[in-house]
Design goal:
Keywords: Pyridoxal phosphate
Family: Belongs to the class-I pyridoxal-phosphate-dependent aminotransferase family.
Pfam families: Aminotran_1_2
CATH class of the largest domain: Alpha Beta
CATH superfamily of the largest domain: Type I PLP-dependent aspartate aminotransferase-like (Major domain)
InterPro entries: Aminotransferase_I/II_large, NHTrfase_class1_PyrdxlP-BS, PyrdxlP-dep_Trfase, PyrdxlP-dep_Trfase_major, PyrdxlP-dep_Trfase_small, TyrNic_aminoTrfase
Radius of gyration: 23 Å
GO molecular function, one term: L-tyrosine-2-oxoglutarate transaminase activity
Largest sheet: 8 strands, mixed
Number of helices: 17
Strand order of the largest sheet: 2-9-8-7-6-3-4-5
CATH architecture of the largest domain: 3-Layer(aba) Sandwich
């Protein structure tokens, strides 16, 4: 039997290494003799930290739904109507057109939304365009769906905008969609409306679907305001993927959605909506209890036949879920982003080309020539974990070698400690003089300068 099973080549399959995969590798490289606390700057789960505690209203709403005993059964495949309606109304507040329940499909978190959309779109010979750097789950999911992946660059010198010339060069008649992430994960950027218009016009001109990952929607603290890509749904159809994980600080609740912004009806006419609905009939659902909780904690008016909710949770939510809760999170992240940017700017071997304006992470470039015994970003992350008990994500996992993704959604004091450990690591491995000599040598070679000029 073993020989028969082996012929199918399961062990030889190439698999994209995800963030979770590499975090497990880093954990195995920690020094057990180091008595200091391990500092996690490699993942985007803020929920363990007191500064990122969810709203008490959300917790009470979940308890009320649980105690009611009304939501212990199976939900419909696309989600409970009250929850879908509340998401539609929530999203419509930022759009020029109104979404309906039929435009929203609930999922078990944003990763599940990625699975649903890519599985629904996958066709023999099709390809899809992803950003680099990006979120590795997209690549991993595309591989399972036999979708060819092509990567366009995000440009650090332009605030991590999309290289639209690169998109045009990559796309062909078999390109089915492109993905953009705004606010940016992992880069911490926030697109301007002008750039969003150019993205939408490019997708329309190429005849490809625009998938907008907005998991970090409204988590912004810089000069650019968050604007949903659905604003441009009349230019080109948009599928928005989002969740409650980040804004409400409850990633473990696993509640996400797919929303179609398509006032011209292209997605329905082409069968894409039907394909999504068909896939939802054979995949997992978010817990019924969480779905009905969404309709309560989203704070958006809706009508539901059960007097229990109309007289119980909804008035309480409308009263207590204010902007203050969301502002508190953004203010904390702003302070953390400032501290991160300032400290990294003081370390010669590291650079952060764009101060983060949104989301919960930033990208940091390594100059290996200025570091002794550090070959690349993976080596940096492994040795940092071993020597300083700090876990950080190498950019190679996200598609960008010799960069690091640093997540700053931790307690400010813990972040400061982690940044000082990174500073100490870089200082200990500093090779500044030799590194600058190597840089100058490369500059001369690339410029064909005369010996006396170098």
């Amino acid at each position: 039997m073993e020989q028969k099973m082996s012929k199918w080549g399961f062990k030889s399959e190439k698999r994209t290494v995800t963030i979770r995969d590499f975090l497990e590798i880093l954990k195995g490289n920690l020094n057990k003799n180091d008595k200091r606390d391990v500092i996690h700057l490699g993942h985007g789960d803020p929920s363990p930290y007191p500064s990122f505690k969810t709203s008490p209203v959300a917790e009470e709403s979940l308890l009320n739904a649980l105690r009611s005993s009304l939501f212990n059964g199976y939900p419909p495949s696309a989600g409970l109507s009250p929850a879908r309606e509340s998401v539609a109304e929530h999203l419509s507040k930022d759009l020029p057109h109104k979404l309906s329940e039929g435009d929203v499909f609930l999922t078990a978190g944003a990763n599940h939304a990625i699975e649903v959309v890519l599985s629904a779109l996958a066709r023999p010979g099709a390809n899809i365009l992803f950003p680099k750097p990006g979120y590795p789950v997209y690549e991993a999911r595309a591989a399972f769906s036999n979708l060819e992946v092509r990567h366009f660059n995000l440009l650090p010198e332009r605030g991590w905008e999309v290289d639209l010339d690169g998109v045009e060069a990559l796309a062909d008649d078999k390109t089915i969609a492109m993905v953009v992430i705004n606010p940016g994960n992992p880069c911490g950027n926030v697109f301007t409306f002008e750039h969003m218009q150019k993205i939408a016009e490019t997708a329309q001109r190429l005849g490809i679907l625009l998938i907008s990952d907005e998991v970090y929607n409204h988590i912004v603290f810089g000069s650019n305001k968050f604007l949903p890509m659905g604003l441009l749904g009349s230019v080109t159809p948009v599928l928005t993927l989002a969740s409650m994980s980040k804004r409400w600080l409850i990633p473990g609740w696993r509640l996400g959605w797919i929303a179609a912004s398509d006032p011209n009806g292209v997605l329905k006419k082409s069968g894409i909506i039907e394909s999504i609905e068909n896939y939802l009939c054979i995949t997992a659902d978010p817990a019924t209890l969480i779905q009905i909780n969404l309709s309560m904690i989203s704070v958006f008016e809706y009508r539901y036949e059960m007097k229990y909710f109309l007289k119980g949770a909804v008035p309480e939510i409308l009263e207590k879920s204010t902007d203050a809760f969301f502002s508190r999170t953004n203010d904390t992240l702003r302070e953390s982003a400032d501290a991160c940017y300032a400290t990294i700017s003081e370390i010669p071997s590291l650079s952060c080309p764009h101060k983060p304006e949104g989301a919960m992470s930033t990208m940091i470039e390594i100059n290996p020539l200025l570091l002794e015994d550090v070959k690349d970003d993976v080596d940096f992350a492994m040795k940092l974990a071993r020597e300083e008990s700090v876990m950080i994500m190498p950019g190679s996992i996200l598609g960008l070698k010799n960069w690091l993704r640093l997540s700053f959604s931790v307690e400010p004091a813990i972040l400061r400690d982690g940044l000082e450990r990174i500073r100490a690591f870089c200082s200990r491995h500093s090779n500044t003089l030799q590194g600058y000599m190597k840089l100058e040598s490369r500059r001369c070679a690339s410029s064909n300068l005369m010996h006396d000029d170098c």
